[in-house]
Specification:
Keywords: Copper, Glycoprotein, Membrane, Metal-binding, Oxidoreductase, Signal, Transmembrane, Transmembrane helix. This is Laccase. One of its GO terms (molecular function) is copper ion binding. By secondary structure, the protein is of the alpha+beta class. Helices cover 17% and strands 31% of the residues. It has a seven-stranded mixed β-sheet, with no helix packed on it. It is globular, with a radius of gyration of 29 Å. The N and C termini lie far apart (91 Å).
């Protein structure tokens, strides 16, 4: 068996000689942004600018990011460098409630990102609330010391895809999504799609020197050259179909894994997924061409009538060349990533441990439609789960101290995990595991089908399954099996990367190799101090207590609604029966002469007329109130 860490360790030697210190200072703050040209939005950015800067480094560099919370409110922040393993430094993973407490206002946390064993296309984003949906996200490129395809292309560009909401996403969460008035759990649909390009650590600009978006964004091609396009979907919800009019694409990288060339006409890029493709420019052309990025509307429960689905930027061979007619929209299948083959061969793992998670959305006992794995909706604990793992001694191997809402699964070092996710929801979901890549060992579109194509058997012995860190699990009973080795001691969250669904609770944590984690990881003091700021204990169980059983104060619930006879149901039924009996009694009373006679009706009318006359004399209800105030 060849572990991921052993395969990658050999890559670190060549880049060490040219290592450099890459040090950045990020002040996280809010500013106005209008990338689609339609609406001035209050976005979350860095150092007073949006979009935040791309991070472009080389294998073997020392990457140090100083993050200061300059949001100006009593609101925490964080930065997660997506796809990084953080071996022996898992506290820098950037997930509040899991590996850190949020960075407090006006305080700084310095993240150290190891880039000696990992290369390829990544990104960074906030893991706090809705900040990444509001714009705190950017590309992160690690250039390999010895790239597999270095001789196959002349230049490269990073293609940044994203969705864009005009309203603050926290407001949408509160007023539209996580509310009893949204019983089906329909997610707010983005107002617009975005595309913009980067190269060598800077964004490409328009003639005014501003970052160029959408119709103004241009990829400058030269005839006969071959380009590497690093495509990143930084959306909080939307999945895209991406292709270049009149140009072929060959996939060479998937989520940091170099693969054998795999020709595609288009890419399906879900939230947080990345691909590198090679594109060879025309040898002769008299046209410019469209860069297409199209919403996958099947991800949206409701498609607004005014939603634009198809967008284009430009592949430019010359400023004055005409634009070739745009291809019509058509139905598209998803990119078969499970058929791709990594260049670094790794045989399929033989599992020693199986974890099965069922994806469900339902109305919970608080009246809100929530997401859950196996009927447990994730709620962030007070004390971060990693801090619990490092402080609870032998009890850290017991899942109970992590709290009932974290859905903690404890793994021993070396466990080979077969993680099966069955999606009972109607829509597909992109799932991400922190701290690891996983092998995709089986994809089923319907686990209840007897058709072997829709529900293939889960076999062992595949010679070289694809490895990545985000996988799309099909909806309506689809399933994916993933395999990974518990060789990275720490606490790692597994979650749907649709931001709405993370908020709704579609997450759980793996507590990996507790005893080894306690030996290898030493929390920086500043992280403990930042927990103190929020009144959170940096030690103990989910409630900050040194106890396996005393979880008082830790989040409990919400829970699924219980079918059958329970207190609320019995009370509601009793009330309904009583109301029905009263109604029937009135009917019977009326039928047996239980109505007012003529004299009684006349007396009632006279009393009402006298009351109205008195009110008029006093000047009405408002004037009576004014008179009373004057007295």
């Amino acid at each position: 068996m060849v572990y991921t860490s052993k395969i990658l360790a050999a890559l670190s030697v060549a880049g060490a000689a040219n290592a450099a210190l890459v040090e950045k200072w990020y002040n996280i703050n809010r500013m106005t942004a209008n990338p689609d040209g339609l609406f001035d939005k209050v976005a979350v950015g860095v150092n007073g600018t949006w979009p935040p800067p791309p991070l472009d480094v080389h294998q073997g560099d020392t990457v140090r990011i100083h993050v200061t919370n300059d949001l100006g409110t009593n609101e925490g922040t964080s930065v997660h460098h997506h796809g990084m393993f953080f071996n022996k430094t898992g506290y820098y993973d950037g997930a509040p409630g899991v590996t850190q407490c949020s960075i407090p206002p006006n305080q700084t946390l310095t993240y150290e990102i190891p880039v000696d064993t990992q290369t390829g296309t990544y990104w960074w984003h906030s893991h706090n609330g809705d900040q990444y949906a509001d714009g705190l996200r950017a590309p992160f490129i690690i250039h390999a010391a010895n790239e597999s395809y270095a001789d196959s292309y002349d230049d490269e560009f990073t293609v940044v895809l994203g969705d864009w909401y005009h309203d603050p996403v926290a407001q949408l969460n509160k007023d539209v999504f996580m509310t009893i008035t949204n019983p089906t759990g329909a997610e707010p649909v983005p107002d617009q799609a975005l595309i913009y390009f980067a190269q060598n650590g800077s964004y490409l600009t328009d003639s005014a020197g501003e970052v160029a978006f959408n119709d103004n964004a241009t990829l400058p091609f030269e005839v006969g050259k071959t380009y590497r396009l690093r495509v990143i979907n930084t959306s909080s919800f939307a999945m895209f179909f991406f292709w270049l009019e009149g140009h072929d694409m060959r996939v060479i990288e998937v989520d940091g894994t170099d693969v054998e060339e795999f020709p595609v006409d288009y890419l399906t890029v879900s939230v947080a997924q990345r691909y590198s493709v090679l594109v060879t420019a025309k040898n002769v052309t008299t046209n410019n061409f469209a860069v297409h990025y199209q919403f996958d509307e099947t991800m949206f429960d409701v498609v607004p009538d005014d939603l634009k689905l198809n967008y284009t930027a430009t592949v430019s061979y010359g400023q004055d060349l005409p634009f070739l007619a745009v291809e019509e929209q058509q139905e598209r299948e998803r990119t078969p990533d499970h058929l791709m083959s990594p260049i670094a061969v790794q045989e399929q793992f033989t599992p020693t441990r199986r974890v099965e998670l069922g994806v469900l959305f339902d109305t919970f006992d608080d009246g809100i439609n929530r997401a859950a794995f196996n009927n447990i909706t994730y709620v962030m604990p007070d004390t971060p789960s990693l801090f619990t793992q490092l402080s609870m001694g032998v009890d850290a191997s017991n899942p109970d101290p992590y709290g009932p809402q974290t859905h903690a699964v404890v793994l021993e070092k070396g466990d080979v995990v077969d993680l099966m996710v069955v999606n009972y929801d109607g829509n597909a979901h992109p799932f991400h595991l922190h701290g690891h890549q996983f092998q995709i060992t089986r994809v089923a579109t319907n686990v209840s089908s007897e058709d072997a194509e829709a529900n293939p058997p889960h076999t062992l012995g595949a010679p070289n399954p694809i490895r990545r860190d985000v996988v799309i699990v099909p909806g309506d009973g689809g399933a994916v099996n993933m395999a990974f080795v518990a060789d990275n001691p720490g606490t790692w969250i597994f979650h749907c990367h649709i931001d709405w669904h993370m908020t709704a609770g579609l997450a759980m944590v793996f507590i990996e190799a507790p005893s080894e984690a306690q030996e290898q990881l030493a929390l920086p003091q500043v992280m403990k101090d930042q927990c103190d700021y929020w009144g959170i204990s940096p030690t103990g169980n989910a409630a900050g207590k040194m106890s396996v059983t005393d979880l008082s104060g830790a989040p409990h619930g919400p829970y699924p609604q219980v079918a059958g006879w329970h207190a609320k149901g019995i009370g509601a039924l009793a009330g309904t029966i009583l109301a029905a009996l009263l109604g029937m009694g009135v009917v019977v009373w009326y039928a047996f002469g239980g109505q007012l006679d003529e004299d009684e009706l006349n007396a009632d009318v006279r009393r009402e007329m006298a009351a109205k006359a008195e009110a008029k004399k006093e000047g009405g209800a408002i004037k009576r109130g004014i008179k009373a105030l004057k007295k």
